[in-house]
Amino acid sequence: KDGEPPLHILFFPFLLPGHLIPMADMAVLFAARGVRCTVLTTPVQASTIRSVVDRANGSSSSSAAGTPMSISVVPFPDVGLPMAAQSGRDLATSRDYHDRFLQTVELLREPFCRFLSDHHADIDAVVSDSLFHWSAHAAAEHGLPRIAFLATSMFARACTDTVLRSNVFESCSDDHGAVVSLPGLPHRVEQRRSQMMDPAKRPHEWAMFQLIHAADRSSYGELFNSFRVLEPGYAEHYRATQLRRRAWLVGPVALASGSLEDVASRGAVAGALSPDAAVCLRWLDAKQASSVVYVSFGTMTNFSPEQMRELARGLDLSGKNFVWVIAKGSTAASSDPSTPDGFPTANRGYIVRGWAPQVLILNHPAVGGFVTHCGWNSTLEAVSAGVPMVTWPRYADQFYNEKLVVEVLGVGVGVGAEDYASCLETHRVIAGEAIAESIRRVMGEEGDGAAMRKEAKELGVMARGAVEKGGSSYDDVGQLMEELIARRSSVGC
Ligand code: UDP
Protein backbone atom coordinates (compact mmCIF):
# COMPACT_ATOMS: atom_id res chain seq x y z
CA LYS A 1 0.00 0.00 0.00
CA ASP A 2 1.11 3.59 -0.59
CA GLY A 3 2.92 5.04 2.38
CA GLU A 4 3.69 1.65 3.90
CA PRO A 5 7.37 0.82 4.31
CA PRO A 6 8.61 -1.82 1.86
CA LEU A 7 8.96 -5.42 2.93
CA HIS A 8 12.21 -6.00 4.76
CA ILE A 9 13.82 -9.43 4.33
CA LEU A 10 16.91 -10.55 6.20
CA PHE A 11 19.09 -12.92 4.14
CA PHE A 12 21.44 -15.19 6.06
CA PRO A 13 23.67 -17.19 3.71
CA PHE A 14 25.90 -20.15 4.51
CA LEU A 15 29.57 -19.41 3.95
CA LEU A 16 30.55 -21.69 1.08
CA PRO A 17 30.56 -20.11 -2.40
CA GLY A 18 27.95 -22.58 -3.71
CA HIS A 19 25.52 -21.23 -1.09
CA LEU A 20 26.69 -17.65 -0.73
CA ILE A 21 26.71 -16.71 -4.44
CA PRO A 22 23.11 -17.78 -5.17
CA MET A 23 21.78 -16.20 -2.00
CA ALA A 24 23.51 -12.91 -2.78
CA ASP A 25 21.99 -13.07 -6.28
CA MET A 26 18.61 -13.83 -4.76
CA ALA A 27 18.81 -10.80 -2.47
CA VAL A 28 19.68 -8.65 -5.51
CA LEU A 29 16.64 -9.86 -7.37
CA PHE A 30 14.27 -9.20 -4.45
CA ALA A 31 15.77 -5.71 -4.06
CA ALA A 32 15.07 -5.09 -7.73
CA ARG A 33 11.41 -5.85 -7.01
CA GLY A 34 11.28 -3.20 -4.28
CA VAL A 35 12.05 -5.33 -1.21
CA ARG A 36 14.43 -3.88 1.36
CA CYS A 37 17.13 -6.55 1.66
CA THR A 38 19.76 -6.93 4.36
CA VAL A 39 22.42 -9.61 4.03
CA LEU A 40 23.72 -10.77 7.39
CA THR A 41 27.19 -12.25 7.19
CA THR A 42 30.63 -12.58 8.80
CA PRO A 43 33.55 -10.10 8.55
CA VAL A 44 35.50 -12.10 5.95
CA GLN A 45 32.45 -12.65 3.78
CA ALA A 46 31.24 -9.08 4.25
CA SER A 47 34.26 -7.57 2.57
CA THR A 48 33.77 -9.84 -0.43
CA ILE A 49 29.99 -9.81 -0.64
CA ARG A 50 30.13 -6.01 -0.61
CA SER A 51 31.08 -5.97 -4.27
CA VAL A 52 27.86 -7.81 -5.14
CA VAL A 53 25.80 -5.33 -3.17
CA ASP A 54 27.67 -2.27 -4.47
CA ARG A 55 27.14 -3.45 -8.01
CA ALA A 56 23.45 -4.04 -7.33
CA ASN A 57 23.03 -0.62 -5.75
CA GLY A 58 24.79 1.02 -8.67
CA SER A 59 23.49 -0.95 -11.62
CA SER A 60 20.68 0.14 -13.85
CA SER A 61 19.45 -3.40 -14.50
CA SER A 62 18.68 -4.21 -10.89
CA SER A 63 18.41 -1.86 -7.98
CA ALA A 64 18.21 1.49 -9.72
CA ALA A 65 14.54 0.73 -10.12
CA GLY A 66 14.39 -0.99 -6.75
CA THR A 67 15.48 -0.57 -3.18
CA PRO A 68 19.08 -0.21 -1.98
CA MET A 69 20.53 -3.24 -0.23
CA SER A 70 22.63 -3.32 2.88
CA ILE A 71 24.99 -5.65 4.73
CA SER A 72 25.10 -6.32 8.44
CA VAL A 73 28.04 -8.05 10.00
CA VAL A 74 28.12 -10.45 12.92
CA PRO A 75 31.47 -11.56 14.34
CA PHE A 76 32.64 -15.06 13.59
CA PRO A 77 33.34 -16.51 17.06
CA ASP A 78 36.96 -16.85 18.04
CA VAL A 79 37.58 -20.56 18.18
CA GLY A 80 41.34 -20.29 18.25
CA LEU A 81 41.77 -20.72 14.53
CA PRO A 82 43.77 -18.48 12.22
CA MET A 83 41.80 -15.63 10.71
CA ALA A 84 41.64 -17.20 7.25
CA ALA A 85 39.96 -20.28 8.68
CA GLN A 86 37.41 -18.16 10.45
CA SER A 87 35.79 -17.30 7.18
CA GLY A 88 34.04 -20.62 7.64
CA ARG A 89 34.96 -21.57 4.11
CA ASP A 90 38.26 -23.06 5.16
CA LEU A 91 36.67 -24.52 8.25
CA ALA A 92 34.13 -26.39 6.22
CA THR A 93 36.61 -27.67 3.68
CA SER A 94 39.41 -28.63 6.03
CA ARG A 95 40.51 -32.23 6.55
CA ASP A 96 38.09 -33.47 9.16
CA TYR A 97 35.26 -32.29 7.01
CA HIS A 98 32.24 -33.32 9.01
CA ASP A 99 33.17 -32.14 12.47
CA ARG A 100 34.34 -28.87 11.01
CA PHE A 101 31.29 -28.52 8.88
CA LEU A 102 28.91 -29.09 11.76
CA GLN A 103 31.01 -26.74 13.86
CA THR A 104 30.65 -23.99 11.28
CA VAL A 105 26.89 -24.41 11.24
CA GLU A 106 26.73 -24.23 15.04
CA LEU A 107 29.19 -21.37 15.52
CA LEU A 108 26.92 -18.78 14.00
CA ARG A 109 23.87 -19.66 16.07
CA GLU A 110 24.63 -17.33 18.97
CA PRO A 111 25.59 -14.22 16.94
CA PHE A 112 22.55 -14.72 14.70
CA CYS A 113 20.17 -15.01 17.65
CA ARG A 114 21.63 -11.88 19.21
CA PHE A 115 21.20 -9.95 15.97
CA LEU A 116 17.60 -11.08 15.66
CA SER A 117 16.80 -10.08 19.25
CA ASP A 118 18.05 -6.57 18.50
CA HIS A 119 16.45 -6.11 15.09
CA HIS A 120 13.38 -8.33 14.77
CA ALA A 121 10.88 -5.48 15.09
CA ASP A 122 12.13 -4.04 11.82
CA ILE A 123 12.09 -7.30 9.82
CA ASP A 124 9.24 -9.02 7.93
CA ALA A 125 10.89 -12.35 7.13
CA VAL A 126 14.15 -14.28 7.41
CA VAL A 127 15.55 -16.18 4.44
CA SER A 128 18.24 -18.41 5.89
CA ASP A 129 20.26 -21.21 4.39
CA SER A 130 18.64 -24.55 4.98
CA LEU A 131 21.83 -25.71 6.75
CA PHE A 132 21.18 -23.23 9.58
CA HIS A 133 18.37 -25.42 10.89
CA TRP A 134 18.30 -23.66 14.26
CA SER A 135 17.29 -20.38 12.58
CA ALA A 136 13.72 -21.77 12.26
CA HIS A 137 13.36 -21.79 16.03
CA ALA A 138 15.14 -18.43 16.43
CA ALA A 139 12.80 -16.74 13.93
CA ALA A 140 9.71 -18.36 15.47
CA GLU A 141 10.67 -16.99 18.89
CA HIS A 142 10.23 -13.50 17.47
CA GLY A 143 7.10 -14.37 15.51
CA LEU A 144 8.98 -14.06 12.21
CA PRO A 145 8.43 -16.34 9.22
CA ARG A 146 11.59 -18.26 8.36
CA ILE A 147 12.00 -19.26 4.75
CA ALA A 148 14.64 -21.87 4.05
CA PHE A 149 16.88 -21.32 1.05
CA LEU A 150 17.87 -24.64 -0.48
CA ALA A 151 21.07 -24.65 -2.49
CA THR A 152 19.85 -27.69 -4.38
CA SER A 153 17.28 -28.88 -6.91
CA MET A 154 13.69 -29.52 -5.94
CA PHE A 155 14.12 -32.95 -7.52
CA ALA A 156 17.01 -33.81 -5.15
CA ARG A 157 15.08 -32.43 -2.21
CA ALA A 158 12.00 -34.49 -3.07
CA CYS A 159 14.19 -37.61 -3.38
CA THR A 160 15.93 -37.11 -0.02
CA ASP A 161 12.60 -36.35 1.59
CA THR A 162 11.27 -39.65 0.32
CA VAL A 163 14.34 -41.45 1.62
CA LEU A 164 13.89 -39.86 5.03
CA ARG A 165 10.16 -40.50 5.28
CA SER A 166 9.86 -44.01 3.86
CA ASN A 167 12.11 -46.80 4.96
CA VAL A 168 13.66 -47.35 1.57
CA PHE A 169 16.76 -49.11 2.84
CA GLU A 170 14.88 -51.68 4.88
CA SER A 171 13.89 -53.91 1.99
CA CYS A 172 17.17 -53.48 0.14
CA SER A 173 20.33 -55.56 0.38
CA ASP A 174 23.58 -53.76 1.00
CA ASP A 175 25.36 -55.28 -2.00
CA HIS A 176 27.37 -52.75 -3.95
CA GLY A 177 25.03 -52.90 -6.93
CA ALA A 178 21.75 -52.96 -4.95
CA VAL A 179 19.10 -50.61 -6.32
CA VAL A 180 16.70 -48.62 -4.14
CA SER A 181 13.28 -47.50 -5.45
CA LEU A 182 11.97 -44.14 -4.32
CA PRO A 183 8.17 -44.35 -4.32
CA GLY A 184 5.60 -41.63 -4.92
CA LEU A 185 7.61 -39.21 -7.07
CA PRO A 186 6.44 -37.80 -10.41
CA HIS A 187 9.07 -39.96 -12.14
CA ARG A 188 10.12 -43.51 -11.53
CA VAL A 189 13.31 -42.96 -9.55
CA GLU A 190 15.68 -45.82 -8.84
CA GLN A 191 19.06 -45.20 -7.35
CA ARG A 192 21.99 -47.43 -6.59
CA ARG A 193 22.44 -47.78 -2.87
CA SER A 194 26.18 -47.08 -3.28
CA GLN A 195 25.31 -43.65 -4.70
CA MET A 196 23.16 -42.63 -1.73
CA MET A 197 23.94 -41.34 1.71
CA ASP A 198 23.59 -44.47 3.79
CA PRO A 199 22.48 -43.96 7.42
CA ALA A 200 24.37 -47.07 8.50
CA LYS A 201 27.63 -45.69 7.14
CA ARG A 202 27.12 -42.01 7.87
CA PRO A 203 25.15 -41.65 11.09
CA HIS A 204 26.32 -38.07 11.79
CA GLU A 205 25.53 -36.80 8.33
CA TRP A 206 22.19 -38.58 8.46
CA ALA A 207 21.30 -37.02 11.82
CA MET A 208 22.16 -33.59 10.42
CA PHE A 209 19.94 -34.30 7.45
CA GLN A 210 17.05 -35.12 9.72
CA LEU A 211 17.51 -31.91 11.67
CA ILE A 212 17.63 -29.84 8.50
CA HIS A 213 14.56 -31.42 6.95
CA ALA A 214 12.55 -31.14 10.17
CA ALA A 215 13.43 -27.44 10.46
CA ASP A 216 12.52 -26.79 6.83
CA ARG A 217 9.18 -28.53 7.23
CA SER A 218 8.37 -26.41 10.27
CA SER A 219 9.32 -23.22 8.43
CA TYR A 220 7.03 -20.82 6.61
CA GLY A 221 8.25 -22.10 3.26
CA GLU A 222 11.20 -22.96 1.03
CA LEU A 223 12.95 -21.05 -1.73
CA PHE A 224 14.64 -22.84 -4.62
CA ASN A 225 17.08 -21.55 -7.18
CA SER A 226 15.31 -23.34 -10.01
CA PHE A 227 12.37 -22.93 -12.39
CA ARG A 228 9.24 -24.97 -12.93
CA VAL A 229 9.75 -26.54 -16.35
CA LEU A 230 13.23 -27.66 -15.36
CA GLU A 231 11.74 -29.93 -12.73
CA PRO A 232 8.52 -31.10 -14.35
CA GLY A 233 5.84 -32.00 -11.85
CA TYR A 234 7.95 -31.37 -8.74
CA ALA A 235 6.49 -28.03 -7.68
CA GLU A 236 3.01 -29.58 -7.78
CA HIS A 237 4.25 -32.72 -6.04
CA TYR A 238 5.88 -30.66 -3.32
CA ARG A 239 2.79 -28.62 -2.66
CA ALA A 240 0.23 -31.38 -2.98
CA THR A 241 1.70 -34.43 -1.40
CA GLN A 242 4.63 -33.45 0.72
CA LEU A 243 2.83 -32.21 3.79
CA ARG A 244 1.46 -29.31 1.77
CA ARG A 245 4.67 -27.39 1.92
CA ARG A 246 4.97 -23.92 0.48
CA ALA A 247 7.75 -23.52 -2.02
CA TRP A 248 8.78 -20.89 -4.55
CA LEU A 249 11.06 -21.49 -7.51
CA VAL A 250 12.65 -18.15 -8.34
CA GLY A 251 15.68 -19.01 -10.50
CA PRO A 252 17.98 -19.10 -12.19
CA VAL A 253 18.82 -16.26 -9.84
CA ALA A 254 22.05 -15.40 -11.68
CA LEU A 255 19.98 -14.64 -14.79
CA ALA A 256 17.38 -12.70 -12.86
CA SER A 257 19.81 -10.57 -10.88
CA GLY A 258 21.83 -9.57 -13.91
CA SER A 259 25.04 -10.69 -12.18
CA LEU A 260 25.88 -13.09 -14.93
CA GLU A 261 28.50 -10.98 -16.60
CA ASP A 262 30.00 -9.87 -13.34
CA VAL A 263 33.01 -12.14 -13.01
CA ALA A 264 34.70 -9.79 -10.58
CA SER A 265 32.02 -9.89 -7.95
CA ARG A 266 31.48 -13.64 -8.25
CA GLY A 267 35.19 -14.23 -7.91
CA ALA A 268 35.31 -11.86 -4.99
CA VAL A 269 32.60 -13.82 -3.22
CA ALA A 270 34.83 -16.85 -3.35
CA GLY A 271 37.86 -14.79 -2.40
CA ALA A 272 39.68 -16.19 -5.40
CA LEU A 273 39.74 -14.02 -8.47
CA SER A 274 41.35 -15.57 -11.48
CA PRO A 275 44.18 -13.39 -12.77
CA ASP A 276 44.00 -14.87 -16.24
CA ALA A 277 40.23 -14.86 -16.84
CA ALA A 278 40.64 -12.51 -19.77
CA VAL A 279 43.38 -14.66 -21.31
CA CYS A 280 41.18 -17.73 -21.07
CA LEU A 281 38.29 -15.95 -22.77
CA ARG A 282 40.59 -14.73 -25.56
CA TRP A 283 41.83 -18.29 -26.00
CA LEU A 284 38.19 -19.36 -26.45
CA ASP A 285 37.60 -16.54 -28.97
CA ALA A 286 40.01 -18.27 -31.33
CA LYS A 287 38.14 -21.61 -31.25
CA GLN A 288 35.31 -22.81 -33.46
CA ALA A 289 31.73 -22.80 -32.21
CA SER A 290 30.87 -25.69 -29.85
CA SER A 291 34.34 -27.21 -30.20
CA VAL A 292 35.53 -26.90 -26.58
CA VAL A 293 34.59 -28.97 -23.54
CA TYR A 294 34.73 -27.15 -20.21
CA VAL A 295 35.92 -29.27 -17.26
CA SER A 296 35.35 -28.11 -13.70
CA PHE A 297 34.24 -29.69 -10.44
CA GLY A 298 33.17 -26.75 -8.30
CA THR A 299 34.79 -25.51 -5.15
CA MET A 300 34.96 -28.61 -2.94
CA THR A 301 36.05 -31.55 -5.06
CA ASN A 302 39.45 -33.19 -4.69
CA PHE A 303 40.81 -35.82 -7.04
CA SER A 304 43.64 -38.25 -6.33
CA PRO A 305 46.78 -37.83 -8.46
CA GLU A 306 45.85 -41.11 -10.17
CA GLN A 307 42.41 -39.79 -11.10
CA MET A 308 43.99 -36.59 -12.37
CA ARG A 309 46.23 -38.59 -14.70
CA GLU A 310 43.22 -40.53 -16.00
CA LEU A 311 41.30 -37.32 -16.54
CA ALA A 312 44.23 -35.86 -18.45
CA ARG A 313 44.41 -39.05 -20.52
CA GLY A 314 40.64 -38.92 -21.13
CA LEU A 315 40.83 -35.34 -22.39
CA ASP A 316 43.69 -36.33 -24.64
CA LEU A 317 41.86 -39.39 -26.00
CA SER A 318 38.65 -37.43 -26.62
CA GLY A 319 40.40 -35.42 -29.32
CA LYS A 320 38.39 -32.33 -28.28
CA ASN A 321 39.55 -28.87 -27.25
CA PHE A 322 39.17 -28.24 -23.53
CA VAL A 323 39.35 -25.71 -20.73
CA TRP A 324 40.20 -27.49 -17.47
CA VAL A 325 39.89 -25.76 -14.10
CA ILE A 326 42.21 -27.02 -11.38
CA ALA A 327 41.03 -25.43 -8.15
CA LYS A 328 43.51 -23.91 -5.77
CA GLY A 329 44.09 -26.06 -2.72
CA SER A 330 42.73 -29.24 -4.27
CA THR A 331 44.94 -32.29 -3.94
CA ALA A 332 45.33 -32.14 -7.65
CA ALA A 333 46.79 -28.67 -7.76
CA SER A 334 50.05 -30.00 -6.41
CA SER A 335 50.17 -32.93 -8.81
CA ASP A 336 51.37 -32.27 -12.30
CA PRO A 337 48.66 -32.46 -14.94
CA SER A 338 51.20 -32.22 -17.70
CA THR A 339 51.59 -36.02 -17.47
CA PRO A 340 51.25 -38.25 -19.40
CA ASP A 341 53.89 -37.22 -21.90
CA GLY A 342 52.94 -34.49 -24.24
CA PHE A 343 49.96 -33.20 -22.23
CA PRO A 344 48.38 -30.72 -22.66
CA THR A 345 48.40 -31.22 -26.38
CA ALA A 346 49.67 -28.25 -28.36
CA ASN A 347 46.95 -25.69 -28.70
CA ARG A 348 44.09 -27.97 -27.67
CA GLY A 349 43.89 -27.34 -23.97
CA TYR A 350 43.81 -24.38 -21.61
CA ILE A 351 44.28 -24.96 -17.88
CA VAL A 352 42.92 -22.45 -15.38
CA ARG A 353 44.58 -22.69 -11.98
CA GLY A 354 42.34 -21.13 -9.38
CA TRP A 355 39.04 -19.40 -10.00
CA ALA A 356 37.60 -19.58 -13.50
CA PRO A 357 34.98 -17.19 -14.90
CA GLN A 358 32.65 -20.19 -15.17
CA VAL A 359 29.47 -18.44 -16.23
CA LEU A 360 31.27 -16.54 -18.97
CA ILE A 361 33.00 -19.68 -20.16
CA LEU A 362 29.75 -21.66 -20.29
CA ASN A 363 28.12 -18.86 -22.26
CA HIS A 364 30.98 -18.59 -24.74
CA PRO A 365 29.94 -19.81 -28.21
CA ALA A 366 33.09 -21.98 -28.44
CA VAL A 367 31.93 -24.15 -25.52
CA GLY A 368 29.85 -27.18 -26.49
CA GLY A 369 29.94 -29.38 -23.39
CA PHE A 370 30.63 -29.35 -19.65
CA VAL A 371 32.22 -32.10 -17.55
CA THR A 372 30.70 -31.37 -14.14
CA HIS A 373 30.35 -32.81 -10.62
CA CYS A 374 26.65 -31.80 -10.79
CA GLY A 375 26.79 -29.23 -8.01
CA TRP A 376 23.43 -27.52 -8.33
CA ASN A 377 24.83 -24.11 -9.27
CA SER A 378 27.02 -25.59 -11.99
CA THR A 379 24.12 -27.65 -13.30
CA LEU A 380 21.84 -24.64 -13.43
CA GLU A 381 24.52 -22.51 -15.07
CA ALA A 382 24.96 -25.14 -17.79
CA VAL A 383 21.19 -25.32 -18.29
CA SER A 384 20.97 -21.51 -18.48
CA ALA A 385 23.76 -21.46 -21.07
CA GLY A 386 22.16 -24.29 -23.07
CA VAL A 387 25.20 -26.56 -22.72
CA PRO A 388 24.89 -30.39 -22.38
CA MET A 389 26.83 -32.17 -19.65
CA VAL A 390 29.06 -35.12 -18.87
CA THR A 391 27.98 -35.88 -15.31
CA TRP A 392 30.50 -36.95 -12.66
CA PRO A 393 28.80 -36.75 -9.25
CA ARG A 394 30.60 -37.48 -5.98
CA TYR A 395 28.36 -36.82 -2.96
CA ALA A 396 25.64 -34.63 -1.35
CA ASP A 397 22.80 -33.97 -3.84
CA GLN A 398 25.01 -34.57 -6.89
CA PHE A 399 23.83 -38.10 -7.80
CA TYR A 400 20.21 -36.92 -7.77
CA ASN A 401 21.10 -33.92 -9.92
CA GLU A 402 22.78 -36.32 -12.33
CA LYS A 403 19.54 -38.31 -12.53
CA LEU A 404 17.58 -35.18 -13.32
CA VAL A 405 20.05 -34.14 -16.03
CA VAL A 406 20.52 -37.55 -17.67
CA GLU A 407 17.22 -39.38 -17.18
CA VAL A 408 14.55 -36.71 -16.76
CA LEU A 409 15.86 -33.89 -18.96
CA GLY A 410 18.02 -35.87 -21.40
CA VAL A 411 20.78 -33.25 -21.54
CA GLY A 412 23.70 -35.28 -20.26
CA VAL A 413 25.70 -38.49 -20.23
CA GLY A 414 26.99 -40.10 -17.03
CA VAL A 415 30.70 -40.82 -16.82
CA GLY A 416 29.97 -43.86 -14.64
CA ALA A 417 30.49 -42.58 -11.09
CA GLU A 418 29.25 -45.25 -8.67
CA ASP A 419 30.16 -44.31 -5.14
CA TYR A 420 28.88 -41.67 -2.81
CA ALA A 421 32.04 -40.42 -1.05
CA SER A 422 32.79 -36.96 0.28
CA CYS A 423 35.70 -34.79 -0.84
CA LEU A 424 38.49 -36.46 1.09
CA GLU A 425 37.39 -40.07 0.80
CA THR A 426 38.60 -42.55 -1.77
CA HIS A 427 36.66 -42.88 -5.00
CA ARG A 428 36.94 -45.64 -7.56
CA VAL A 429 39.10 -44.25 -10.35
CA ILE A 430 37.24 -43.56 -13.61
CA ALA A 431 39.36 -44.63 -16.56
CA GLY A 432 40.46 -42.22 -19.29
CA GLU A 433 38.66 -44.30 -21.94
CA ALA A 434 35.28 -43.89 -20.19
CA ILE A 435 35.86 -40.16 -19.79
CA ALA A 436 36.79 -39.77 -23.46
CA GLU A 437 33.78 -41.75 -24.64
CA SER A 438 31.30 -39.65 -22.62
CA ILE A 439 32.89 -36.44 -23.89
CA ARG A 440 32.71 -37.62 -27.49
CA ARG A 441 29.04 -38.55 -27.04
CA VAL A 442 28.08 -35.17 -25.62
CA MET A 443 30.17 -33.24 -28.15
CA GLY A 444 29.36 -35.47 -31.12
CA GLU A 445 27.41 -34.26 -34.11
CA GLU A 446 25.49 -37.49 -34.49
CA GLY A 447 23.17 -39.72 -32.50
CA ASP A 448 22.10 -38.59 -29.07
CA GLY A 449 24.77 -35.83 -29.00
CA ALA A 450 22.83 -33.73 -31.47
CA ALA A 451 19.53 -34.39 -29.65
CA MET A 452 21.04 -33.47 -26.30
CA ARG A 453 22.43 -30.22 -27.65
CA LYS A 454 19.08 -29.28 -29.12
CA GLU A 455 17.30 -30.08 -25.87
CA ALA A 456 19.89 -28.13 -23.85
CA LYS A 457 19.48 -25.06 -26.09
CA GLU A 458 15.72 -25.18 -25.60
CA LEU A 459 16.13 -25.39 -21.83
CA GLY A 460 18.41 -22.34 -21.96
CA VAL A 461 15.67 -20.37 -23.71
CA MET A 462 13.13 -21.53 -21.12
CA ALA A 463 15.45 -20.51 -18.28
CA ARG A 464 15.53 -16.96 -19.61
CA GLY A 465 11.78 -16.98 -20.12
CA ALA A 466 11.22 -18.06 -16.51
CA VAL A 467 12.86 -14.95 -15.03
CA GLU A 468 11.36 -12.44 -17.43
CA LYS A 469 8.22 -10.51 -16.55
CA GLY A 470 5.34 -12.97 -16.71
CA GLY A 471 7.65 -16.01 -16.39
CA SER A 472 7.09 -18.62 -13.69
CA SER A 473 10.05 -17.55 -11.52
CA TYR A 474 9.15 -13.87 -11.85
CA ASP A 475 5.62 -14.72 -10.73
CA ASP A 476 6.81 -16.81 -7.80
CA VAL A 477 8.80 -13.84 -6.46
CA GLY A 478 5.67 -11.68 -6.72
CA GLN A 479 3.56 -14.34 -5.05
CA LEU A 480 5.89 -14.67 -2.07
CA MET A 481 5.98 -10.88 -1.68
CA GLU A 482 2.18 -10.72 -1.73
CA GLU A 483 1.93 -13.45 0.88
CA LEU A 484 4.37 -11.66 3.16
CA ILE A 485 2.53 -8.36 2.77
CA ALA A 486 -0.79 -10.06 3.54
CA ARG A 487 0.82 -11.69 6.56
CA ARG A 488 2.10 -8.32 7.74
CA SER A 489 -1.42 -6.88 7.64
CA SER A 490 -2.93 -9.85 9.47
CA VAL A 491 -0.23 -9.85 12.17
CA GLY A 492 -0.55 -6.07 12.50
CA CYS A 493 -4.35 -6.25 13.09
N1 UDP B 1 32.73 -21.33 -9.69
C1 UDP B 1 33.33 -20.43 -10.54
N2 UDP B 1 34.64 -20.62 -10.88
C2 UDP B 1 35.37 -21.67 -10.42
C3 UDP B 1 34.73 -22.60 -9.57
C4 UDP B 1 33.42 -22.40 -9.23
O1 UDP B 1 32.70 -19.46 -10.99
O2 UDP B 1 36.54 -21.79 -10.76
C5 UDP B 1 31.33 -21.10 -9.28
C6 UDP B 1 30.37 -21.85 -10.17
O3 UDP B 1 30.05 -21.07 -11.30
C7 UDP B 1 29.20 -22.08 -9.23
C8 UDP B 1 29.86 -22.23 -7.86
O4 UDP B 1 31.13 -21.61 -7.97
O5 UDP B 1 28.36 -20.94 -9.22
C9 UDP B 1 30.03 -23.67 -7.43
O6 UDP B 1 28.81 -24.16 -6.99
P1 UDP B 1 28.32 -25.64 -7.26
O7 UDP B 1 26.99 -25.78 -6.61
O8 UDP B 1 28.37 -25.95 -8.71
O9 UDP B 1 29.40 -26.58 -6.60
P2 UDP B 1 30.07 -26.66 -5.13
O10 UDP B 1 31.32 -25.89 -5.23
O11 UDP B 1 29.10 -26.07 -4.14
O12 UDP B 1 30.31 -28.12 -4.95
TrEMBL record:
This protein's name: Glycosyltransferase
Pfam families xrefs: UDPGT (PF00201)
EC number of the protein: 2.4.1.-
Keywords, ordered alphabetically: Glycosyltransferase, Transferase
MF annotations from Gene Ontology: UDP-glucosyltransferase activity
Organism: Aegilops tauschii subsp. strangulata
Family: Belongs to the UDP-glycosyltransferase family.
Organism domain of life: Eukaryota
Cited InterPro entries: UDP_glucos_trans, UDP_glycos_trans_CS
